[in-house]
Amino acid sequence: MLNEIGSYDAKTKLPEILRRVQSGETFTITNRGKAIAELGPSHANSRAVAKAAVENILKLKKYYVSDEQIASLKADGRK
């Protein structure tokens, strides 16, 4: 969703706007009715989350559990 906000309102309501941006909203900041900037969520954070997820997946791929181990774990759980 794209919201327009004047530069004065952007200055006076910055904490509220930043909370809304953090939740995914995007704003067009205007000056005298003319669009001058776009304010939206940072892609750096989503890249960091994606990088951490990939690293976790790669860590899991390195750990191999044999069929015998799985059978043993199942048997232990049934006791």
**How would you spell out the order of helices and strands?**
EHHEEHH
Fraction in beta strands: 15-25%
Give the full name of the CATH homologous superfamily of the largest domain.
YefM-like domain
Specify the CATH architecture of the largest domain.
3-Layer(aba) Sandwich
Count of separate DSSP helical elements: 4
Low-confidence residue ranges: none
What oligomeric assembly is this protein in? single chain
Number of extended strands: 3
Please give the domain count: 2
Distance between the amino and carboxyl termini: 55 Å
The proportion of residues forming helix, as a percent range, comes to 55-70%
Task: List the strand order in the largest sheet.
Answer: 1-2-3
The fold-level CATH name of the largest domain is YefM-like fold
At the first level of CATH, the class of the largest domain is Alpha Beta
The structural class is: alpha+beta
Q: Would you mind describing this structure in some detail?
A:
This protein is of the alpha+beta class and 79 residues long. The protein folds into 2 domains: 2-39, 3-Layer(aba) Sandwich (YefM-like fold); 43-77. It is built from 4 helices and 3 strands, in the order E-H-H-E-E-H-H. A 3-stranded mixed sheet has the order 1-2-3. A hairpin with a 2-residue loop joins strand 2 (26-31) and strand 3 (34-39). The longest helix has 20 residues, at 43-62. The mean pLDDT is 87.
